[in-house]
Amino acid sequence: MAEIITMPRLSDTMTEGVVAEWLKKVGDKVEEGDILAQIETDKATMEFESFNEGYLLHIGLQVGETAPVDSLLAIIGEKGEDISELLAGNKAPEVNKEESSLPVAEKEVSASTETTSAEDTFVVPDNITVVTMPRLSDTMTDGTVAAWLKKVGDQVSEGDILAEIETDKATMEFESFNEGTLLYVGLQEGENAPVDSLLAIIGEAGTDVTEVVSKFKSASTAPAAEEKAPAVEKETPKTVSENASATTATATKRVSAINSENGRIIASPLAKALAEEKGINLAKVIGTGDSGRIIKIDIENYNPVVEVAANTAASVLAAPSGEISRTEVKNSQMRKAIVKALDNSQTTAVNFTVTMDIDMDNAIASRKVINSIPDTKISFNDLVVKATAMALKSHPQVNTEWTNEQTIYNNHISIGVAVAIEDGLVVPVIPFTDTKSLTQIGAEVKELAVKAKNKKLTPDEMSGSTFTVSNLGMFGVDHFTSIINQPNSAILSVGGIKQKPVVKNGEIVVGNVMTLTLACDHRTIDGAVGAAFMNTLKEYIENPVTMLA
User: Fold this and answer.
1) Cβ–Cβ contacts within 10 Å for residue 524, how many?
2) Cystine design at 415: which of 149, 273, 311, 433 (Cβ 3.0–4.6 Å)?
3) Which CATH number fits the domain 102-226, given the four candidates 3.30.420.10, 3.40.120.10, 2.40.50.100, 2.40.50.140?
């Protein structure tokens, strides 16, 4: 189904944009992550990438033309799809040039008061700037403040990172295009609001912004405010008695903090950086800051043994014996996006699976030799990713995408590696995987996994895969079946290595076995093709030396 792509708001003060250059033309195939155009904003000329896939059916603005944010920019859909109704229903209305030149906040506040008398009309003072929730992707309708990097009273320079904003795609850094003092914060960490909502106010130190905040809030719709659940009820679950021990009280404080922030861990930027440096999983650290926030001293004093005891106490207290207890955690933007993608995959792809056991004896021995080399360390998953890339070269039918009009053969191989994070699942991509060595693959996978867990992956790093590998072996899973990560035609599920009785040279011996399951889209891959691919993959993994040639 055709999708309308609108002029994005690429900065918090952007009210209109100019198409500096189109990187695609009508009729071109567009992949998720492709750069559609270069858009000139009030700050800079920026690349605008597509979050949709299909064919570019219509271009609404020619190079050099200007249009307001949210105007029709392009339409992407199936090849040959009729878009006449979309064009008829989305003609941009005439825009008053004088109004379009106003800052976003000034337009919003003025609009809310246009029916009042002239003396009641309010205009944002020149010495402050209202910063609104930015639209960081063309599909973003609302955003969540994951973390503030500045606090009220801090000096802000142009280019400073104000906050981390969670969108439906990723958690992204939001930089300031203004300078001054942070006078007001409109959303607390964990709070969600629509695009263009009041996010912050920056201006001269000491400026009274009470009237600005009041006017801006009055311009927002009442129903939106009513939809918010009472904060106190969720943020303060009463699960600890006054006489509870210090350990259990701290543990419950930790659970409370996680619930109050929509399931995310609250940590200061310094604590996050220190945890990453020391290789500490923030999910296992007890925060002693406000509302259970993890701060620097918590990382420095982290003790795994104490944490296990505290978590055990918290889990018991969270559900008292004999009582019905529930905790509501708001669905994150990432979780909603995952559900949408999985639902689409399950309802469109025609799936079948192929399962095969792999003898890992040679792989175990080869990995031991490789890792004995100084400054070299690869995992079994790296071996699987490398072998998969090489097998795809021999079986291009598996490296395809389905559209209603044609099957697209990808002449390059870029493997996505599924990574479990706190809020769900992301798939960072190793571009041109077949051209890279085992050590290169290992280093890239490790780097991307760390960025994924810290929610620092960019949209570019999560787009463009032609095949996906999902590994649950480290969780003790023998075998499983994954849902295809569209537009890929297949996904490989990797189980753990188990010792089993196997037959070798006519004798039953103990062998190391790993089970692989390939889920295929039958629209592009037939059973025999899937089986042939698995046999080639098996040969590479069971004989790792063939991957080093």
Assistant:
1) 21
2) 433
3) 2.40.50.100
